[in-house]
Design a protein that fits this description.
There is one protein chain. Helix content is about 5%, strand content about 30%. The chain is built from four helices and 27 strands. Strands 15-16-17-23-19 form a five-stranded mixed sheet. A four-stranded antiparallel sheet has the order 4-5-6-7, with no helix packed on it. Strands 11-12-13-14 form a four-stranded antiparallel sheet. Strand 20 and strand 21 form a beta hairpin. The longest helix is centred in the middle third of the chain and has 10 residues, at about 165-175. It is elongated and about 115 Å long.
């Protein structure tokens, strides 16, 4: 013990020699700008903790948290590693609570040779490899927080097919991010517990950044199997002119709102807050293709303007076609152009822009179809409130407060597009009054009124086999 190091609130480090305690042997400002006129450097943020570790290679390691310059406003929390003349600043996702240097020997009077730094963050645990160039991070075998991006929806599935979890794990292993240390996790100790359930459990979470994560919940802790990024099928906003269409949400336009998943067919359907639906299919091969897209006008409005010949204009159903004679929509492989009136009102414009270039999709879930609701006469589309998938017929149905739509994601066409007024209003073409088949009527030249005739509503609601006058009852009585 010949010397020691201290950290200060002005962002400086002082090294003291035990034999010369009158003044510090060295003063270091790791992140302070050194003025040329020999004056003191500008003060920096306080250094909360520092560790000094010796090495057999010569230069010691000085590891500290804090001490950044005040002009770096908005910068994330950092850990600084000083080794010789090099200074590495490692940014963290969360504030640093504490850190600990892992050394080859626990004795301070020997060469310590640090090989890793364990950093305790507010919502995570990170380990830095000090023996590789660039100080890569170790891959964490057990994620500390499920809220890497805030969770916006969650679905639970039990008793899944036996081969499902291994299939998701096999494609998830290929998603390993680059930049991890090649060494194994250096922290050891403890035993993994076994789950009490004999069946497989799976949790799917949707997040604010548009990602969908599959978790194995069969064991004691959650283990992430596979991560799907849905935001990559859309073009990112590069300037302010691209942002007005996302007025439907204040922030996080790619956030996942609803998840519908079929474990047997592995069809995945998700709905986002920007009034969009995405259908994914599971594939074991990579693919590069264009993104198919369908735009839907799902809104109802009434025009009170009379036509030039004096006839009143029929109510305008903005889905485009009436429910009685709907026509399939032509799928688009690229975003449609924005259409707006002369006064600048947005119309037929989706909230998000789908990528116009081909998308290379890795093994796992690959996009099959994107369905987007569009603006109608300056009004943004309402968020989708419910979705359902029928994988046998390859149909997806979704709806909101304005109506409901059925899409064939194999043929990529709209089969049915009904607004709420058509479903529950008096103009419902499928509405039928209860009528007994026993009552026959003579055909008339026009549409007959259901209230005509002498039969009462009670008679019309009777079953055809009810009553003593039924021919079947009379025949049975004759046989007996």
């Amino acid at each position: 013990g010949k010397q020691f190091i201290c950290s200060h609130s002005d962002g400086t480090l002082t090294m003291w020699n035990v034999r010369s305690p009158a003044r510090p042997a060295q003063i270091i400002t790791p992140h302070g700008k050194q003025p040329k006129d020999g004056k003191k450097p500008e003060p920096c943020k306080p250094i909360l903790k520092v560790e000094y570790r010796t090495s057999r290679s010569g230069d010691p390691f000085i590891i500290l948290s804090g001490g950044l310059s005040y002009d770096t406003a908005g910068r994330r929390p950092c850990l600084t590693v000083m080794h010789g003349k090099s200074i590495a600043v490692l940014e963290m996702d969360y504030p640093i609570v504490d850190f600990l240097t892992l050394c080859e020997t626990p004795y301070p009077n020997d060469f310590q040779d640090p090989y890793a730094v364990v950093i305790l963050l507010e919502k995570d645990l990170a380990v830095i490899d000090l023996e590789q160039i660039g100080y890569p991070i170790f891959e964490n075998p057990y994620p500390m927080s499920i809220h890497e991006s805030p969770v916006t929806c969650c679905e639970y599935f039990a008793d899944c097919p036996a081969e499902l979890i291994p299939a998701l794990y096999s494609v998830g292993v290929r998603q390993k991010r680059q930049g991890y240390s090649k060494k194994e996790w250096p922290v050891s100790g403890g035993n993994w517990g076994l789950g009490a359930q004999s069946y497989a459990e799976l949790i799917i979470t949707g997040h604010a950044d548009g990602s969908v994560k599959f978790w194995d919940a069969s064991a004691i802790t959650l283990q992430m199997l596979y991560k799907l990024k849905t935001a990559k099928i859309f073009e990112k906003c590069r300037n302010k002119d691209d942002k007005p269409n996302t007025d439907i949400v204040d922030e996080d336009p790619y956030a996942i709102q609803i998840i519908s998943w079929h474990p047997e067919s592995r069809i995945l359907c998700v709905a986002g807050v920007s009034a969009h639906v995405m259908i994914y299919k599971f594939s074991k091969q990579e693919a590069t293709s264009d993104i198919s897209m369908i735009e839907v006008r799902l809104q109802y409005e009434t025009n009170d303007i009379e036509s030039p010949n004096g006839d009143p204009v029929q109510p305008l159903l903005t889905p485009g076609t009436s429910s009685t004679n709907s026509q399939p929509a032509i799928p688009q492989s690229h975003p449609s152009t924005s259409s707006s009136s002369s006064d600048g009102i947005r119309d037929n414009v989706p909230c998000l822009k789908v990528r116009s270039s081909s998308l290379k999709q890795s093994v796992g879930y690959q996009i099959e179809l994107v369905v987007q609701l569009v603006w109608v006469n300056g009004e943004p589309p309402q968020q989708i409130t419910s979705i359902a998938v029928n994988s046998a017929y390859e149909l997806v149905v979704f709806g909101n407060c304005n109506g409901i739509a059925i899409v064939d994601y194999l043929q990529k066409t709209i089969l049915l597009n009904l607004c709420t007024f058509e479903l529950y209003g008096s103009n419902d073409p499928y509405q039928r009054q209860p009528k007994s088949p026993r009552k026959t009527r003579q055909p008339s030249g026009g549409l007959s009124d259901i209230n005509e005739g002498s039969s009462t509503s009670e008679d019309r609601c009777k079953s055809p086999t009810s009553g003593s006058g039924s021919p079947y009852n009379s025949e049975d009585e004759q046989k007996m």
